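Hello Y.,

Per our agreement to keep a running log of every chain we model this quarter, I'm adding this entry. I've kept the format consistent with earlier entries: sequence first, then predicted structure.
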Amino acid sequence: MNESETNECLGALLELSMNMMEFCKRQGIVPIGCASPTVVQVRASMIVAHVSPDGVTIKELARLLQLSQGATSKLVDRLVHIGIVDRVQDSSDRRAVKVFLSEKGRHFSGFHCIQARHLVDKYLPEVSEKDKETFLKCAETLNRRIWEEQLAWALP
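Predicted structure for the entry above:
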């Protein structure tokens, strides 16, 4: 794929992502119990979901979000308040706090996978099941690799 084709593909993916976000907003699909989660709240919950099953520290989350630790701590407070994450004191360092997805946060994370499948079924009815599965696998692989690259860059 040459640079022009790559840029065209990335542009299409970005447009698809924005269209899906707008569609969910118009449909009232906001599964976390607040009227309209901010981009940073959604991003933070996605990072917590992807970083480690052992949780993420405020310092790590701040670095990934490119925010100060104070701003990140306030963001985590809001996420705790709406039930998306839990704060747990680190057993190896009493000064540190680890952030984990709550049960509601895990539901929120899984919800997006289910919604993606419904959208594919609704808007691509003429596409075979095999091709839909291939499309979803490609999207999952792309997403996973982007996360891996971001985490490798941001975490020591």
